[in-house]
Design a protein that fits this description.
Number of strands: 0
Structural class: mainly alpha
Radius of gyration: 23 Å
Mean pLDDT: 79
Distance between the termini: 37 Å
Order of helices and strands: HHHHHHHHHHHHHHH
Low-confidence stretches: 1-5
Oligomer: single chain
Helix content: over 70%
Largest sheet: none
Length: about 350
């Protein structure tokens, strides 16, 4: 059977997406196994007891805060379209945002396409314009995340230094005290640098035309264009307020879960900030942070004297609250959207 033009490339793109999802999902499952495999039966029992005795009223509050953060994200997204002459409804914008998060749990980056497609279908906003605003959103969120990362470093330097001094630096010192290891590191570093230089020199033309480099250029260009488009926002103060409040709500969505347990209820907001920043890295790496997010939360809280079992229990509770909220509200948004009417009046 003949293959239609473009059909092969479309199949390759879908196959590549599935492979990436399987790899990152597998990474999440691997982290779950690694975080549980060395636990003793007593520690596993302690985790189960922690789940049974947790105060889940705080989880309900965390879910409400999470929904509020996504509502603010919808309101902020609407501000992007004002200079373009579009006024999407808050209802459809919120549906699009939640369905986007829901889709991202299945396949990373599918959510960005889904939410832009929904506004294109129900609000007649061109897909490319919608996607440009999403790139801008990503840029802003990464900027705020970077600032929070620096704030964490500056405010929690004492705790982090103590951890590095006792857990990390001694191991590094032992490695570099080994002359064989030191020579291997030196030779390996020199060989890697020479290899990279050789590839860049010999294949510079081919690399310039490669899809990976072109995609990287497109991402950088989109990032820059997204930042420039901020100058067109008609309500900059409101835009900044929404952007900051989204992350404030992200913080409290996690921090209120600390009060599920007496041991973590007395932790400072600084500990919550560390958990937010480091936990966000886990969400970036694996789909929805599966496996990695609870493990990172647990390791972060150990810096503040919290036991492994309590940290893991809290990490899983916080992750389940966030993910469960996205699944329920996202699926409900998808259902309600199906009853919506398109601009032409069709269902």
């Amino acid at each position: 059977m003949a293959v239609l033009p473009g059909e092969g490339s479309h199949f390759k793109a879908r196959f590549s997406t599935v492979i990436k999802f399987v790899v990152f999902l597998g990474l999440g499952v691997l982290v779950i196994w690694l975080s549980l495999k060395n636990l003793t039966s007593d520690e596993k029992t302690q985790i189960l007891v922690a789940f049974r005795t947790a105060n889940y009223n705080w989880v309900i509050l965390a879910i409400v805060l999470g929904i509020m953060s996504h509502l603010l994200r919808s309101l902020r997204w609407m501000l992007f379209f004002e200079p373009m002459g579009y006024k999407p409804s808050l209802k459809n914008t919120f549906y699009a945002v939640m369905i986007g998060y829901f889709a991202n749990l299945a396949f990373p980056r599918l959510g960005e396409v889904s939410r832009c497609g929904i506004l294109s279908k129900y609000e007649k906003i061109p897909f490319n314009k919608g996607f440009g605003t999403v790139i801008t959103e990503r840029a802003i969120d990464m900027l705020i995340f970077f600032l929070l990362f620096l704030l964490t470093i500056f405010t929690q330097i004492g705790t982090i230094d103590s951890y590095l001094d006792t857990k990390i630096y001694p191991k590094i010192y032992e490695k570099f005290q080994n002359p064989v290891f030191s020579k291997m590191m030196l030779y390996g570093l020199v060989a890697l640098v020479l290899l990279i230089i050789g590839i860049l020199v010999l294949f510079r033309k081919q690399l310039g035309r490669s899809k990976a480099v072109q995609k990287l250029k497109a991402v950088i260009l989109g990032f820059w264009e997204g930042l420039k488009s901020l100058a067109q926002i008609r309500k900059p103060v409101l835009f900044v307020f929404y952007s900051l409040m989204i992350w404030v709500l992200y913080f409290f969505m996690l921090y209120v879960c600390f009060f599920c347990f007496p041991a973590t209820g007395s932790l400072s907001m600084g500990a919550g900030l560390s958990a937010l920043v480091l936990g966000s890295v886990g969400i970036m790496i694996t789909p929805g942070g599966i496996g990695l997010y609870p493990a990172i939360i647990s390791e972060t809280l150990r810096l503040y004297g919290i036991s492994l079992t309590t940290g893991l229990a809290l990490g899983w509770i916080a992750w389940t609250a966030q993910t469960g909220m996205i699944i329920v509200v996202g699926a409900l948004s998808l259902l309600l959207l199906s009853f919506n009417k398109k601009p032409d009046g069709q269902a």
